[in-house]
Design a protein that fits this description.
The protein is 37% helix and 20% strand. The protein has 282 residues and is α/β, with parallel strands linked by helices. It has two domains: 172 residues, Rossmann fold (3-Layer(aba) Sandwich), CATH 3.40.50; 91 residues, Pantoate-beta-alanine ligase, C-terminal domain (Pantoate--beta-alanine Ligase, Chain: A,domain 2, 2-Layer Sandwich). A six-stranded parallel beta sheet has the order 1-4-3-2-5-6, sandwiched between helices. The protein has a three-stranded antiparallel beta sheet with strand order 7-8-9, with helices on one face. The longest helix is centred in the middle third of the chain and has 16 residues. The protein is globular and about 55 Å long.
């Protein structure tokens, strides 16, 4: 596995790959790899000749109340996991390497960001779109892999690729779950024992909503009410949002039709958990 820290080295290696006419699968991360990331790498390994992983904690994604400095980092562990996962090239630049000067140009996202988590994280997806624009241009991947656990991010990236006509295929990978259905997340370790037992009710509520839709219900308010009722009855968490939107446009709907996302965020004492399902109806 090649470990590269500079853009110059990266361009040289990518040129070598392109000259060999190989396909490149790209998994961008902020490091501290977990099973969700490893699933993305596994999917990339299956479908591409070369797998490129980036580990970069992007300061542009952090708002004024979010501590960039305390974000967990363990590059040595990431390198070990990447090697075991069959990564061919690990790109782990410094902040100064990616942003040697204060950015003069950034990408501003104007749609798909004023709902769900984006409502309370102003500018976050601008940072995501800016760094991905740089990385897509540097790495020139054939396919890029992202987890559906953060379905809003997937929707924003879908829009970015289409808007700027990047020649990259977006691969959205289903959420990895614990045996009891809880979406895997590094935040789960911050749940108390009681909260950990309650947390699977989030996914339970989404499955109940899906079943209601399959039975013919199309009223968004009734769907959201069912989810709210189950979470309030079965957990001590505080609901941040329950939303049913079109997908990937993330626009308000009253009657469920076509492809939609049902998404929730619940705040427990030590962690805020998000989850979602997508469903397509005629």
């Amino acid at each position: 596995m090649n470990v590269i820290t500079t853009k110059k080295e990266l361009r040289q290696k990518i040129t070598e790959y392109k000259n060999k006419n190989v396909t490149i699968g790209f998994v961008p991360t902020m490091g501290f790899l977990h099973e969700g990331h490893l699933k993305l790498l596994d999917e990339a390994r299956k479908a591409n000749d070369i797998v490129v992983l980036s580990v970069f904690v992007n300061p542009l994604q952090f708002g004024p109340n979010e501590d960039f400095d305390s974000y967990p980092r363990n590059i040595k562990r990431d390198e070990e996991l990447a090697k075991l996962a069959g990564v061919d090239l690990l790109f782990s630049p410094s902040v100064n390497e990616m942003y040697p000067n204060k950015p003069s140009y950034t990408v501003t996202v104007t749609s798909r960001v004023h709902v769900l988590c984006g409502r309370s994280r102003e500018g976050h997806f601008d940072g995501v779109a800016t760094i991905l624009t740089k990385l897509f241009n540097l790495i020139e991947p054939n396919r890029a892999y992202f987890g559906m656990k953060d379905a809003q991010q997937v929707a924003v990236i879908d829009g970015l690729i289409n808007e700027f006509e990047f020649p990259v295929q977006l691969e959205a990978v289903e959420t990895i779950r614990e045996e009891d259905g809880l979406a895997k997340s590094s935040r789960n370790v911050y749940l108390s024992e009681k909260e950990r037992k309650q947390a699977p009710s989030i996914y339970k509520s989404l499955l109940a909503a899906k079943q209601l839709i399959l039975q013919g219900e199309r009223n968004k308010t009734k769907i959201n009410h069912l989810i709210t009722h189950i979470i309030n009855e079965e957990t001590d968490g505080n609901i941040d949002y329950v939303e049913t939107l079109s997908y990937p446009d993330l626009e308000e709907v009253e009657i469920i039709s076509g492809k939609c996302i049902i998404a929730v965020a619940v705040k427990f004492t030590g962690a805020r958990l998000i989850d979602n399902i997508t469903i397509e109806v005629q």
